[in-house]
Amino acid sequence: MRQVLSDLAHLFPTAIVSGRGRKKLQSLIGLAGHPGLFYGGSHGFDISGPTGVNDSLRRKEASEMLPALKRASAQLSASVAEFFGSQVEDNELAVSVHYRNLADKEALPELERRVDDVVEGSPELTKHYGKCVFEVRPRSDWHKGKAVEYLLDALDLGGPDVLPVYIGDDVTDEDAFKTLHGRGLGIVVMSDEEVGEAAAADGERGAEGGAAGGEAAGRGRRTAATMRVATTDEVRAFLRRFSEAGREGRCQGKAGASAARG
Protein backbone atom coordinates (compact mmCIF):
# COMPACT_ATOMS: atom_id res chain seq x y z
CA MET A 1 0.00 0.00 0.00
CA ARG A 2 2.92 2.37 0.70
CA GLN A 3 4.09 2.24 -2.92
CA VAL A 4 0.55 2.71 -4.18
CA LEU A 5 0.15 5.82 -2.01
CA SER A 6 3.50 7.17 -3.14
CA ASP A 7 2.58 6.72 -6.82
CA LEU A 8 -0.81 8.33 -6.26
CA ALA A 9 0.64 11.33 -4.42
CA HIS A 10 3.04 12.03 -7.29
CA LEU A 11 0.01 12.48 -9.55
CA PHE A 12 -2.67 13.96 -7.29
CA PRO A 13 -2.68 15.95 -4.03
CA THR A 14 -3.26 13.17 -1.50
CA ALA A 15 -4.17 13.46 2.18
CA ILE A 16 -4.37 10.85 4.90
CA VAL A 17 -6.86 11.89 7.57
CA SER A 18 -6.83 9.69 10.66
CA GLY A 19 -7.71 9.51 14.31
CA ARG A 20 -4.09 8.65 15.06
CA GLY A 21 -1.68 11.38 16.11
CA ARG A 22 0.05 13.10 13.20
CA LYS A 23 3.61 12.09 14.11
CA LYS A 24 2.51 8.51 14.73
CA LEU A 25 0.66 8.54 11.41
CA GLN A 26 3.68 9.85 9.51
CA SER A 27 5.85 7.16 11.06
CA LEU A 28 3.32 4.45 10.21
CA ILE A 29 2.99 5.54 6.56
CA GLY A 30 6.76 5.89 6.15
CA LEU A 31 6.60 8.52 3.38
CA ALA A 32 7.64 11.63 5.32
CA GLY A 33 8.67 14.49 3.06
CA HIS A 34 6.80 13.15 0.03
CA PRO A 35 6.09 16.20 -2.19
CA GLY A 36 2.42 15.42 -2.74
CA LEU A 37 1.32 13.93 0.58
CA PHE A 38 -0.58 15.70 3.37
CA TYR A 39 -1.50 14.44 6.83
CA GLY A 40 -4.46 15.21 9.07
CA GLY A 41 -3.79 13.61 12.45
CA SER A 42 -6.09 13.46 15.49
CA HIS A 43 -9.21 13.64 13.30
CA GLY A 44 -7.82 16.65 11.45
CA PHE A 45 -6.93 18.73 14.49
CA ASP A 46 -3.25 18.54 13.46
CA ILE A 47 -2.54 19.06 9.74
CA SER A 48 0.79 19.11 7.93
CA GLY A 49 1.93 19.06 4.30
CA PRO A 50 5.02 18.31 2.27
CA THR A 51 6.66 21.66 3.08
CA GLY A 52 8.34 20.00 6.04
CA VAL A 53 7.82 17.10 8.41
CA ASN A 54 7.67 19.39 11.44
CA ASP A 55 5.52 22.11 9.86
CA SER A 56 2.05 21.68 11.30
CA LEU A 57 -1.20 23.59 11.54
CA ARG A 58 -2.92 22.80 14.81
CA ARG A 59 -6.40 23.88 15.62
CA LYS A 60 -6.04 26.55 18.31
CA GLU A 61 -8.75 25.08 20.52
CA ALA A 62 -7.09 21.67 20.41
CA SER A 63 -3.71 23.03 21.48
CA GLU A 64 -5.36 24.93 24.33
CA MET A 65 -7.00 21.71 25.54
CA LEU A 66 -3.78 19.69 25.44
CA PRO A 67 -3.41 19.70 29.28
CA ALA A 68 -6.97 18.40 29.67
CA LEU A 69 -6.30 15.69 27.07
CA LYS A 70 -3.12 14.60 28.88
CA ARG A 71 -5.04 14.39 32.16
CA ALA A 72 -7.79 12.39 30.50
CA SER A 73 -5.26 10.01 28.97
CA ALA A 74 -3.68 9.33 32.36
CA GLN A 75 -7.06 8.96 34.08
CA LEU A 76 -8.36 6.59 31.42
CA SER A 77 -5.20 4.47 31.52
CA ALA A 78 -5.70 3.97 35.24
CA SER A 79 -9.48 3.60 35.14
CA VAL A 80 -9.75 0.95 32.41
CA ALA A 81 -6.59 -1.02 33.22
CA GLU A 82 -8.67 -3.85 34.71
CA PHE A 83 -10.55 -4.41 31.45
CA PHE A 84 -8.38 -7.08 29.83
CA GLY A 85 -8.00 -6.55 26.10
CA SER A 86 -8.87 -2.84 26.14
CA GLN A 87 -6.25 -0.29 25.11
CA VAL A 88 -5.83 3.43 25.73
CA GLU A 89 -4.04 5.23 22.90
CA ASP A 90 -2.79 8.78 23.38
CA ASN A 91 -3.03 10.46 19.98
CA GLU A 92 -1.85 13.80 21.40
CA LEU A 93 -4.89 15.85 20.38
CA ALA A 94 -7.31 12.99 20.98
CA VAL A 95 -7.44 9.92 23.23
CA SER A 96 -8.76 6.57 21.99
CA VAL A 97 -10.07 3.72 24.14
CA HIS A 98 -10.08 0.60 21.96
CA TYR A 99 -12.29 -2.36 22.88
CA ARG A 100 -12.09 -4.58 19.81
CA ASN A 101 -10.08 -7.15 21.79
CA LEU A 102 -12.00 -6.77 25.04
CA ALA A 103 -11.99 -10.22 26.66
CA ASP A 104 -15.33 -9.86 28.43
CA LYS A 105 -17.77 -8.26 26.00
CA GLU A 106 -20.40 -8.00 28.73
CA ALA A 107 -18.10 -5.53 30.49
CA LEU A 108 -18.42 -3.02 27.62
CA PRO A 109 -21.18 -0.93 29.28
CA GLU A 110 -19.04 -0.55 32.41
CA LEU A 111 -16.01 0.34 30.28
CA GLU A 112 -18.02 3.05 28.55
CA ARG A 113 -19.23 4.32 31.92
CA ARG A 114 -15.60 4.72 33.02
CA VAL A 115 -14.93 6.76 29.87
CA ASP A 116 -18.03 8.86 30.54
CA ASP A 117 -16.87 9.56 34.10
CA VAL A 118 -13.56 10.96 32.84
CA VAL A 119 -15.23 13.06 30.12
CA GLU A 120 -17.84 14.43 32.53
CA GLY A 121 -14.99 15.63 34.74
CA SER A 122 -13.52 17.62 31.84
CA PRO A 123 -16.18 19.93 30.32
CA GLU A 124 -13.76 20.97 27.55
CA LEU A 125 -13.73 17.40 26.21
CA THR A 126 -16.36 15.23 24.55
CA LYS A 127 -16.84 11.56 23.69
CA HIS A 128 -17.34 10.22 20.17
CA TYR A 129 -17.92 6.73 18.80
CA GLY A 130 -15.66 4.98 16.31
CA LYS A 131 -15.23 1.44 15.06
CA CYS A 132 -14.76 -0.53 18.32
CA VAL A 133 -13.38 2.59 19.97
CA PHE A 134 -14.45 5.47 22.19
CA GLU A 135 -12.80 8.73 21.15
CA VAL A 136 -12.16 11.58 23.58
CA ARG A 137 -11.62 14.84 21.71
CA PRO A 138 -11.69 18.60 22.31
CA ARG A 139 -15.22 19.97 22.45
CA SER A 140 -15.19 21.70 19.09
CA ASP A 141 -17.13 21.82 15.84
CA TRP A 142 -14.24 20.16 14.02
CA HIS A 143 -14.00 16.72 12.50
CA LYS A 144 -12.63 14.86 9.48
CA GLY A 145 -15.13 16.54 7.17
CA LYS A 146 -14.01 20.01 8.27
CA ALA A 147 -10.38 18.93 7.82
CA VAL A 148 -11.11 17.82 4.24
CA GLU A 149 -12.84 21.14 3.53
CA TYR A 150 -9.85 23.02 4.91
CA LEU A 151 -7.39 21.04 2.78
CA LEU A 152 -9.43 21.54 -0.39
CA ASP A 153 -9.60 25.29 0.21
CA ALA A 154 -5.92 25.59 1.19
CA LEU A 155 -4.86 23.74 -1.96
CA ASP A 156 -7.26 25.73 -4.18
CA LEU A 157 -9.16 22.54 -4.98
CA GLY A 158 -12.65 23.72 -4.12
CA GLY A 159 -13.81 24.40 -7.67
CA PRO A 160 -16.43 22.51 -9.69
CA ASP A 161 -13.71 21.01 -11.89
CA VAL A 162 -12.30 19.03 -8.95
CA LEU A 163 -13.56 15.61 -7.86
CA PRO A 164 -12.42 14.89 -4.30
CA VAL A 165 -12.26 11.18 -3.48
CA TYR A 166 -12.43 10.03 0.15
CA ILE A 167 -12.04 6.43 1.32
CA GLY A 168 -12.66 5.32 4.90
CA ASP A 169 -13.88 2.47 7.05
CA ASP A 170 -14.67 4.15 10.37
CA VAL A 171 -17.80 5.75 11.79
CA THR A 172 -15.78 8.97 12.12
CA ASP A 173 -15.30 9.00 8.33
CA GLU A 174 -19.01 9.66 7.93
CA ASP A 175 -18.38 13.37 8.59
CA ALA A 176 -16.16 13.47 5.50
CA PHE A 177 -18.67 11.48 3.44
CA LYS A 178 -21.38 13.99 4.37
CA THR A 179 -19.11 16.93 3.57
CA LEU A 180 -18.39 15.59 0.08
CA HIS A 181 -21.93 14.43 -0.67
CA GLY A 182 -22.98 15.90 -4.01
CA ARG A 183 -19.52 17.30 -4.80
CA GLY A 184 -17.18 14.31 -4.51
CA LEU A 185 -16.91 10.55 -4.25
CA GLY A 186 -17.17 8.89 -0.85
CA ILE A 187 -16.15 5.24 -0.66
CA VAL A 188 -16.82 3.24 2.48
CA VAL A 189 -14.73 0.14 3.24
CA MET A 190 -17.22 -2.35 4.60
CA SER A 191 -17.24 -6.13 4.45
CA ASP A 192 -20.17 -8.17 3.16
CA GLU A 193 -20.62 -9.49 6.69
CA GLU A 194 -20.99 -5.94 8.03
CA VAL A 195 -23.57 -5.19 5.35
CA GLY A 196 -25.55 -8.23 6.45
CA GLU A 197 -25.37 -7.18 10.10
CA ALA A 198 -26.58 -3.69 9.24
CA ALA A 199 -29.41 -5.05 7.10
CA ALA A 200 -30.54 -7.18 10.04
CA ALA A 201 -30.42 -4.14 12.30
CA ASP A 202 -32.48 -2.21 9.75
CA GLY A 203 -35.04 -4.98 9.82
CA GLU A 204 -35.29 -4.68 13.58
CA ARG A 205 -35.68 -0.91 13.33
CA GLY A 206 -38.35 -1.34 10.66
CA ALA A 207 -40.27 -3.75 12.88
CA GLU A 208 -40.16 -1.11 15.62
CA GLY A 209 -41.35 1.61 13.25
CA GLY A 210 -37.93 3.23 12.80
CA ALA A 211 -36.90 5.04 9.65
CA ALA A 212 -34.15 3.82 7.36
CA GLY A 213 -32.21 5.55 4.62
CA GLY A 214 -28.90 5.23 2.80
CA GLU A 215 -26.75 2.12 2.47
CA ALA A 216 -26.27 -0.16 5.46
CA ALA A 217 -22.80 0.22 6.94
CA GLY A 218 -22.25 -2.24 9.75
CA ARG A 219 -24.15 -2.99 12.98
CA GLY A 220 -26.96 -0.56 12.24
CA ARG A 221 -24.68 2.23 11.03
CA ARG A 222 -25.90 4.28 8.08
CA THR A 223 -23.46 5.76 5.59
CA ALA A 224 -23.38 8.87 3.43
CA ALA A 225 -20.81 7.22 1.14
CA THR A 226 -21.77 6.79 -2.50
CA MET A 227 -19.78 3.61 -3.14
CA ARG A 228 -18.54 0.58 -1.20
CA VAL A 229 -15.53 -1.72 -1.36
CA ALA A 230 -15.28 -4.78 0.85
CA THR A 231 -11.57 -5.08 1.68
CA THR A 232 -8.30 -3.17 1.84
CA ASP A 233 -7.18 -5.21 -1.18
CA GLU A 234 -9.99 -3.60 -3.14
CA VAL A 235 -8.88 -0.18 -1.86
CA ARG A 236 -5.36 -0.89 -3.11
CA ALA A 237 -6.69 -1.98 -6.51
CA PHE A 238 -8.88 1.12 -6.80
CA LEU A 239 -6.01 3.48 -5.98
CA ARG A 240 -3.73 1.67 -8.40
CA ARG A 241 -6.28 2.07 -11.21
CA PHE A 242 -6.74 5.71 -10.23
CA SER A 243 -3.00 6.27 -10.60
CA GLU A 244 -2.97 4.50 -13.95
CA ALA A 245 -5.75 6.78 -15.18
CA GLY A 246 -3.70 9.79 -14.11
CA ARG A 247 -0.58 8.59 -15.89
CA GLU A 248 -2.56 7.87 -19.05
CA GLY A 249 -4.18 11.32 -18.99
CA ARG A 250 -7.71 10.01 -18.46
CA CYS A 251 -8.02 12.32 -15.44
CA GLN A 252 -6.08 15.47 -14.71
CA GLY A 253 -3.70 15.98 -11.82
CA LYS A 254 -5.76 18.73 -10.24
CA ALA A 255 -8.29 16.16 -9.05
CA GLY A 256 -7.72 15.62 -5.34
CA ALA A 257 -7.67 12.18 -3.81
CA SER A 258 -8.21 12.15 -0.08
CA ALA A 259 -7.62 8.76 1.50
CA ALA A 260 -8.55 8.08 5.09
CA ARG A 261 -7.91 5.20 7.43
CA GLY A 262 -9.13 5.52 10.93
Automatic annotation (TrEMBL):
Keywords: Hydrolase. Its cofactor is a divalent metal cation. InterPro entries: HAD-like_sf, HAD-SF_hydro_IIB, HAD_sf, OTSB-like, Trehalose_PPase. Residues 208-217 have a biased composition (Gly residues). One of its GO terms (molecular function) is trehalose-phosphatase activity. Pathway: Glycan biosynthesis; trehalose biosynthesis. It is an enzyme of class 3 (hydrolase). It catalyses: alpha,alpha-trehalose 6-phosphate + H2O = alpha,alpha-trehalose + phosphate. Residues 200-225 are annotated as: Disordered. Removes the phosphate from trehalose 6-phosphate to produce free trehalose. This is Trehalose 6-phosphate phosphatase. It comes from Porphyra umbilicalis (Purple laver).
